[in-house]
# Entry
Amino acid sequence: MKQVFLDTLSLEDARRLLFSRLNSIDLSLPSEKVDVRNSAGRITAEAVFARYSSPFYHSAAMDGYAVRFSDTFTASETSPSLLRIGYDAVYVDTGDPMPEGFNAVVMVEDINIIRREGMGDGQEDECIEIYEPVTPYQHVRTIGEDIVATELIIPENHEIRAIDAGAMLASGHTEISVRKMPKIAIIPTGTEIVEPDVVKNRPPAPPEIIEYNSSVLSGLAHESGAETVRFNIVRDDMEDIKKAIDEASKTCDIVLVNAGSGRGSEDYTLAAVKELGEVIINGVSIKPGKPFIAGFVNNRPVFGIPGYPVSAYLTFQLFVKPVISRILGVALKEKEKIKAVISRQIASPMGVDEFIRVKVGVVNDKYIATPAGRGAGLLMSLVRADGIIRIPADTEALSAGTEVEVELIRDKNEIKNTIVCIGSHDNTMDILANAVKKKYPQFSLSSAHVGSMGGLTALKRGEAHFAGTHLLDEQSGEYNIPFIKRLLADRKIVLVNLVYRQQGFLVKKGNPKNIKGFEDLMRDDVIFINRQGGSGTRLLLDKHLRELGINPYMIKGYDREEYTHMAVASAVLTGLADTGIAVYSSAVALGLDFIPVANERYDLAIPSEFMDMEMIKILLEIIREDKEFRATVEALGGYDTRDMGKAVFEG
# Structure
C-alpha cells in the first residue's frame, strides 16, 4: 500500500483550507454546570452577573469605634469631642456590620478613653475623645463598594482565573455554566510500538519502540483546554485503524491518529480516512511535519499526526491547537516572542517553511539564539530548546548575526537567568548544569555543542558567556592557550580548568574487529564515526592521520559527523559504526571497550568582563567548592580533577 503524496500545500494554504471547511460544520459544544470552586481554566458559556452586592451591608473597615460623623464637627486638639461609649460610640472590629444610625469609624489608635461624671446619677460614663472631625463613611466599607448586584463579573467566552472564581463566589454564585471541554481521541498506531509498562523491567527489543507520543499529545491537549481519550495501540492493519477512527469520530470531537500518515507500505491513515470520509490535506510544505493529514469523518475533524515526536509536536501546535480554540470560542493563545540574533549560519531548503529549535540566552544585553538538533525524531532537542524560529519557504539560508523572531517555549525570565556555553561537548557539562539548577534553582546552564573552534568564535562575536575547549597546538604541545592568543587577542580571557580527560577509540565489548590504532581505520571492514569539523576531537584525529600519512578520505565514515561524545558512543553500540574517538566516560556509560589515544586538558574560556557576573561566580563556586559535583565527575570514569577550578591562564 505504498502511498503517493498529492500536491503538498503551503502552510498558509493548508490552514486556510482547514478553517474554511470547519466553518461549514457545527462544532459548537453544549454547556454544563460546574462548581465555581472547581472552575479555574474553564470557558464561560454565558455572561456572569452579580446576584448580590459585596459587601452586602455597611461594614467597618478598621478596628475602632462607630460614630455619627455629625457628632464630631467641632472636634479639635484643644477642644476634643467626647462621645459616650455604648451610646454615641460603639466598638466594632474590622468587618463588623455598622450599628444602625452610625456612619463613620474612628480607628482605635486615634482616640483616647476617659471617664467623666455622668448625668447626675452619681455614676461615671466611659467616653472617647476625638481630636478631629471625621467624614461621612470614613473607614466604612459601603454596600456594593466592591461588587454591585447585577453588574457584569465576567463575560461569555472568558477563561476563568482563580481571582474570577473568588469574585463569582463573593457575588453569590456557587455554580456557573461553562463550555464542555472538547474531547480529543488519541489513537497510537504501529505494530512495533509497545506500552511503556511492557519495558518497565527490561530494555526494548528490536523492533520495539516505547509509545510516548500519546502522552505528549495529551499534555498539549490539556494545556489547550481539552480532555483526551487515549485508545489502545492499534497495529498496522487497515481494518483495525478504520474501526478505531470510526468509533473515535462518533464519540469525540477531534480525532488524532498518531503515525501512519506517511508514504510507507504500512501507513494506512490516508486510505482509512478516505474510505470513511474525506481528506482535504495530504502533506504540508513544512519541516518537520510534512506528512500531515487532515480530513473529516462523521463531520468530525480527523488529523493524521506524524510519528516523529518533533513533527507531532509541531503539527499539533500549527493545526490542532487552533481548532480546539475555535471549538471553545476563545482566541488562540500566542506564545511570547522575542527578537534574537542567531549565532551561526543556518541553511534551509527552498519551498519549505522550516521550524528550527534553538537555545536562547542573553549575552551583552542581546538575545542569542543557537540552533539545536534538527531531526524530526530528536525529542531531546525539544526538551532542551528555549524557542523555535521559522525560516520562510522563500529563504535559503540565514547568515550568522541575522536578527530572527523566536517563539519561546520557556519563560523569558528563565532565559535571562541562563548561563550560555557554546563550544566543545563534554559529559561533565550535563553534571555541571544539574548542579547549578539543584543549588541555585533560579539559574540554568545551557550548552550548545559546536566544537572548540566554534566556541572560541562565539566568544569573539560576543555570543556566549564561556566556551568549553580542548584544542592542542601541534607546535608547542600546549592546550588552548595558543588558540586563545591567536583568535581572541583583542579580548581578555580567563582560562579555567575543568578536567583532564582520556580520549580514545570506542569499540564494542571484546573488540570484535580487533581495532588497535589509527592504521586500522583504513581497513575495508571498519566503519568509522567522526566528530564535526572544528571540534577538538576532530583536530586530534586529523593530527594523528597527518603524522601517519593516512588520507582521511580513504576512511569509511570519515565524512559522517556527530556533535557529542555520547552520540559517537551510541553509534558504536548500535552498530552504525565499528569505532569512533570519544572520551572514556562515554565508553563507561554505554558499556563499550576503550583504547586510549591521548590525555587532554578540557578548559572553560571565560571573557574577563563576565567574571563578576553573579551567574559566573555561582558556576565557579560549584566547580571549585562543591564536593558532590567533583565526586560525581570522578565517578564517570576517565577524569582527573586535580586542577578543577584553577585559572591556568589570564590574558
